[in-house]
From TrEMBL, chain A:
Topology with respect to the bilayer: Multi-pass membrane protein
UniProt name for this protein: NADH-quinone oxidoreductase subunit M
Transmembrane regions listed in the UniProt entry: 31-50, 80-98, 107-125, 131-149, 161-182, 202-219, 239-260, 272-293, 300-321, 341-359, 380-401, 407-435
UniProt GO BP: ATP synthesis coupled electron transport; electron transport coupled proton transport
Segments forming domain NADH:quinone oxidoreductase/Mrp antiporter transmembrane: 124-428
TrEMBL record, chain B:
Highest classification ranks of the organism: Bacteria, Bacillati, Actinomycetota, Actinomycetes, Pseudonocardiales
GO cellular component annotations of the record: endomembrane system; membrane
Domain NADH:quinone oxidoreductase/Mrp antiporter transmembrane: 125-399
Membrane-spanning intervals of the chain: 33-54, 75-97, 109-133, 169-189, 201-223, 235-251, 263-284, 291-311, 323-346, 358-376, 396-418, 438-458, 470-491, 588-609
Species per Swiss-Prot/TrEMBL record: Pseudonocardia ammonioxydans
Name of the featured protein: NADH:ubiquinone oxidoreductase subunit 5 (Chain L)/Multisubunit Na+/H+ antiporter, MnhA subunit
Membrane topology: Multi-pass membrane protein
Length: 501, 610
């Protein structure tokens, strides 16, 4: 079943590759949309069959037995929400793309490939398989940014993105090999390594392993100071690319922490948990403050991602400080961090799609060029306000449930760091309110081409259909968190137990 | 607490009805019928609130790991749910008088605003309290900036939201402290029993959040800007939501304030200081809405004082009495603005009360009540609060009396000015065109404001303990009377020091001391990012390229030379190896004999050694 979920978009991509390119956007994006719906349905089936503990829908085949590599897939409460997020976001971007894009065939084929590797990464239970999907995601995203960005800076940004994250992935590979070599039996199998716990005693070797794996994941997440590839990549990427990059690809980094770093290197995670907390808090403040200084809408949203991912690390680090906090607090921290991954995916994707729609109309991301949008394009203004409030962690939206759990869970273990991190909530509020204050009220002002006023229509049906469901989901998750927490919490508890042993 | 089904339904209706209807109105934005839908929902909510106040439902559902979302209506909540629903209904009925407020957006925001307050006052656990609390803040942002062409309104909304959210951070921290202190359920009732230092951290967080929300010193300035919102919004925001929420939270957590030791006196002193200082600010304002706003801070100060003195019932009484008065005054001010186009007491509002007698009478009742004159509600409410203060410090009591006197002065001043004959010829539209429902609402509110004092004899949650002594009531009544009379003399000649006019420059201070430094820091960090950190990978790439050139230039040549050297060496060896092969027999014999000699020597050597 999981194999079908993972390879279904790839199969569709193969089938579409024989369709002539002149068939047009409607055919390609329509097929992509249908693929997404089918994938969503399949994920729902897997969701219904998730066992209370352990992995569900497991598939395992020998692949390279001599090297301890197997084709091993499975889902639990940590990966299933992200798998569902993948299906939701790709479907939404498919709807968004239905409006039209240059060279639709290549675009859709690339995104289908990205969809396959993203789904694959979240269900992979073998380190080499994980690494393979991790790397392929970088390759495909490189082509999306370089091919559909805006000219020469796009290729440059794409290259920076590629080199930076590829280097990170090499560190990751090194760490995986160190992990595999540590055990009595050479294996890359994640559950087997978690059970063996070969580096239970910590020490320099384990610390080094955590360091290289941590760097690899931190680049992708991205955490301060490895975040500088993010703003240019986002600025140059097409809207759909930004939405997937922020919504899914960043999660590959944070997911790696809960899936690999924490359970496979528990002793070192406990030892260096404070480092994770510090990195998280610095990312929270750095991301928020630098975002506050931006006038470019997309750069601003990109930096808020650094801020939001910082909370995840704060929560995961606090969960590693076993001595300083109770079991309930650590469950809250880990569950909150996982919740944040899903929440940020939905909200930031919506913000990036909105930014894309604005750019399409005004041909600039410069916020100072716009004014009075609430009067001129009220539907856009309404959705943007909702997305901004969701992003600043307003209760009623999923971000609050995530951040509240992280803060509440972390305060007992790291009070000073948490109090500092809480101020990030205020700074994000300031920057998003300032952005809205610039663009939404006042006299109508839109960037016109010289002499001829541009048509500046409100959001169309397809844009609404792509963006509104994301925000609706964020609202549902903000008001009825049990729907997702019932799945996440058992898995969060078992990760914490693995860390604490 | 076991959750009973009817109670759960009632609570779900109480909170769900206004919020869901409000969200629907916001999304649908119907071209017509928004007012009808809003008013109907508000009326239904009031009915549900009364039912909830009578039946006292309680209910809980799972929310987070080990933490439940709990809602319950107890004595204090019962008072507040009815109050919130009633003021909401009044505000929406009066809003129908203003054409630009007959929109789905306005009614939707107001309904969610009130729904969030209803959730705040019924929440029994911290997470849901915080959720409702912050949603209220967001709605106030949207309502203060309701007029989209008014950038100043948006700015004021942003200041209000950021100021209150800065204080709200206290509740985030309090939640963590409650958990760390041993109250895993995060129930508000468990607050006093926390362990050690966590108790103090949690209480500090709660106090911070409450002071910010209720616009007490030093946060008062946000309420001044909040005046940009439509008057019905002000009526709701100043009486039954936002500012009232801060007072409510302190009343709710008064036992914990007491246990913490330092918190109760601190809260009491902040309350009484705000009551006095903002009373002075109100006394010098020319703009009626600014006067009323400063007076809100001042009057809420008495509620905060009540929480510090653990006089919960007196605080609730003051809340109700103030809400009736303040919603009345704001709604009248809004109707005057709509018909006369002015807020200025010495300008356009001079003689306003003479032009529409019913409205003028309603305003007068409100002003008398605000002045603290007997037998109106605030007279009893304020004295009930003050009656509890001598136990802490007599200075508190005296300061409270002086603050009460300033209220008499500013209320009296507004009263005299609106009754003075207008200076010039009357302009503007005819006031008699005011819609009847709006005027009727002000009359109802005037009756409520007048009669609120009777509640002190009524239900237990409002019966103050200790009750004010007769002489205390008499002294405050005489003081209020003097205040109103003095105001008549100085109504137009009140000295207006700039500092008081500008609300003590608190906003300027916050701007300079906090907002600007943060913005400067943000700019600096952004430059570090763009010119420093972002260059690192590019620099690394350049360094790699340079290394490659170096390797090509030097390394490659070296390797080249080494390879060539080896080849030369091999060739030389080859040449050397060819030398013995001369082709001449005698030379081969000579070579062989040398070889044999060497072998023989070796054999001898081996034999000897053995």
């Amino acid at each position: 079943m999981l194999s079908l979920i993972v390879f279904w978009p790839a199969l569709v991509a193969v089938a579409l590759s024989v369709v002539p390119a002149r068939a047009g956007t409607r055919v390609f994006a329509g097929a992509w949309f249908a693929t997404g719906l089918v994938q969503l349905g399949l994920v729902a089936v897997v969701w219904a069959g998730l066992p209370a503990t352990g992995y569900g829908s497991v598939e395992r085949l020998a692949w390279i037995p001599s090297a301890g590599v197997s084709y091993h897939l499975g889902v639990d409460g940590l990966s299933l929400p992200l798998l569902a997020l993948t299906a939701v976001l790709f479907t939404a971007t498919a709807v968004y793309t239905l409006r039209g894009i240059a060279r639709p065939k290549g675009f859709v084929l690339l995104f289908l490939a990205l969809q396959a590797v993203s789904a694959g990464l979240f269900v992979a239970l073998d380190l080499i398989l994980f690494f393979l999907f991790f790397d392929l995601s970088i390759v495909f995203m490189y082509f999306v940014i370089a091919g559909w960005g805006t000219g020469a800076p796009a290729r440059r940004a794409a290259l920076t993105f590629f080199l930076y994250t590829f280097l990170g992935s090499l560190a990751l590979l090194l760490g995986f090999i160190l992990l595999a070599l540590a055990g009595p039996r050479f294996t890359f199998d994640i559950p087997a390594l978690a059970a063996q716990n070969p580096l239970a005693d910590g020490g320099a070797y384990a610390g080094l392993t955590l360091l290289v794996i941590g760097i690899g994941l931190a680049v992708k997440t991205p955490l301060f100071p490895f975040h500088t590839w993010l703003p240019p990549a986002h600025t140059e990427a097409p809207a759909a690319g930004s939405a997937i990059l922020a919504g899914i690809l960043l999660k590959m980094g944070t997911y790696g922490f809960v899936r690999i770093a924490m359970p496979l290197l528990p002793a070192s995670w406990r030892q260096f948990a404070l480092m994770a907390v510090v990195l998280g808090v610095v990312s929270v403040l750095w991301g928020a403050l630098v975002a506050l200084a931006q006038t470019d809408l997309k750069r601003m949203i990109a930096y808020t991602s650094v801020n939001h991912m910082g909370y995840v690390l704060l929560g995961l680090g606090a969960a590693g400080l076993v001595a300083g906090s109770g079991e309930q607090a650590r469950t809250l921290a880990t569950a909150g961090a996982t919740y944040q991954m899903v929440s940020h995916g939905l909200i930031t994707a919506a913000l990036f799609l909105l930014a894309g729609s604005l750019h399409e109309r005004g041909h600039t991301y410069d916020m100072t060029a716009y004014g009075g949008l609430a009067t001129r394009i009220p539907r856009f203004a309404g959705l943007f306000a909702v997305a901004a409030f969701a992003s600043l962690g307003l209760p009623g939206f999923s971000g609050f449930i995530a951040e509240f759990q992280i803060f509440a869970g972390a305060l007992g273990a790291v009070p000073v760091a948490t109090v500092i991190a809480v101020t990030g909530v205020l700074i994000t509020a300031a920057l998003l309110l300032l952005a809205m204050g610039r663009m939404l009220p006042g006299e109508v002002r839109v960037p016109d081409a010289p002499g001829t006023p541009r048509p500046f229509p409100d959001l169309g049906a397809r844009e609404l259909l792509a963006i509104a469901p994301l925000l609706m989901l964020a609202t549902v998750l903000g008001l009825l968190p049990r729907a997702l927490l019932d799945v996440i919490e058992p898995a969060a508890r078992s990760v914490n137990d693995l860390v604490a042993r | 607490m076991p959750s009973t089904v009817p109670g759960a339904v009632l609570l779900a209706l109480l909170i769900g009805l206004p919020t869901v209807a409000g969200a629907a109105l916001l999304v649908a934005r119907p071209a017509r019928g928004a007012t009808a839908a809003g008013v109907t929902t508000a009326a239904a909510t009031l009915a549900v609130a009364v039912a909830a106040a009578v039946t006292r439902p309680a209910s809980e559902v799972a929310l987070l790991a080990g933490v439940r979302a709990g809602f319950a209506v107890d004595g204090l909540s019962a008072v507040l749910v009815v109050l919130v629903a009633a003021v909401l209904l009044a505000a929406l009925v009066v809003a129908a008088a203003e054409p630009d407020l007959r929109t789905g957006r306005f009614h939707g925001l107001m309904l969610i605003f009130a729904g969030a307050m209803l959730a705040t006052v019924t929440a029994t656990t911290l997470p849901v309290l915080l959720m409702a609390w912050e949603v209220m803040g967001a709605m106030s942002w949207a309502l203060i900036g309701y007029r989209l062409d008014d950038r100043a309104g948006t700015r004021a909304g942003t200041v209000a939201f950021l100021t209150t959210r800065a204080a709200d951070l206290g509740l985030y921290i309090a939640a963590g402290a409650v958990l760390a202190g041993g109250a895993g359920t995060m129930a508000l009732a468990d607050l006093p029993g926390l362990d050690g230092g966590w108790l103090h951290l949690a209480v500090a967080g709660v106090v911070l959040a409450a002071l910010g929300k209720s616009a007490q010193l030093p946060f008062s300035f946000w309420l001044s800007g909040a005046m940009h919102g439509p008057s019905p919004t002000s009526a709701l925001l100043h009486s039954a939501t936002m500012v009232a929420a801060g007072g409510y939270l302190l009343l709710r957590t008064a036992p914990a304030l007491d246990v913490a030791g330092w918190a109760a006196p601190l809260v009491a002193w902040v309350g009484v200081t705000t009551a006095l200082v903002l009373g002075l600010v109100a006394a010098v304002q020319d703009d009626l809405k600014q006067l009323l706003a400063a007076s809100t801070c001042s009057q809420i100060g008495f509620i905060v004082l009540a929480a510090g003195a653990a006089a919960t019932q007196a605080g609730a009484l003051q809340t109700v009495a103030h809400a009736a008065v303040k919603s009345l005054l704001f709604l009248v001010a809004g109707l005057w603005l709509a018909t006369l186009g002015s807020h200025s007491l010495t300008g356009g509002l001079r003689g306003a009360a003479r032009r529409h007698r019913v409205l003028g009478a309603a305003f007068s009742v409100g002003a008398f009540a605000l002045a603290g004159l007997p037998p109106f509600g605030l007279w009893v409410g304020k004295d009930a609060v003050l009656a509890a203060t001598p136990a802490i410090s007599p200075v508190l009591y005296v300061t409270g009396l002086v603050a009460g006197w300033t209220a008499a002065f500013y209320a009296g001043r507004a009263l005299w000015l609106v009754w003075r004959p207008a200076a010039g010829p009357v302009t503007g539209s005819r006031p008699s065109r005011l819609p009847r429902p709006a005027v009727a609402t002000t009359v109802v509110l005037a009756v409520a404001a007048a009669a609120a004092g009777l509640l002190a004899l009524g239900p237990a949650p409002l019966r103050p303990q200790p009750a004010p002594q007769t002489w205390e009531l008499a002294v405050s009544a005489v003081l209020a009377g003097i205040g109103v009379l003095v105001a008549r003399r100085y109504a137009e000649r009140v000295p207006a020091p700039g500092l008081l006019m500008r609300w003590l420059d608190l906003e300027e201070l916050a701007q300079r001391g906090l907002a600007r430094p943060v913005l400067v820091l943000a700019g600096a960090l952004a430059r570090v990012d763009d010119h420093g950190l972002a260059r690192v990978p590019a620099g690394a790439a350049r360094a790699t390229a340079r290394l490659a050139t170096l390797v090509t230039a030097h390394g490659e040549r070296g390797v080249d030379r080494a390879v060539a050297g080896i080849a030369d060496g091999a060739r030389a060896l080859g040449r050397a190896a060819r030398r013995p092969q001369t082709g001449q027999l005698h030379q081969y014999y000579a070579q062989a004999s040398v070889g044999f000699a060497l072998l023989a020597a070796l054999a001898v050597l081996v034999l000897v050694v053995r």
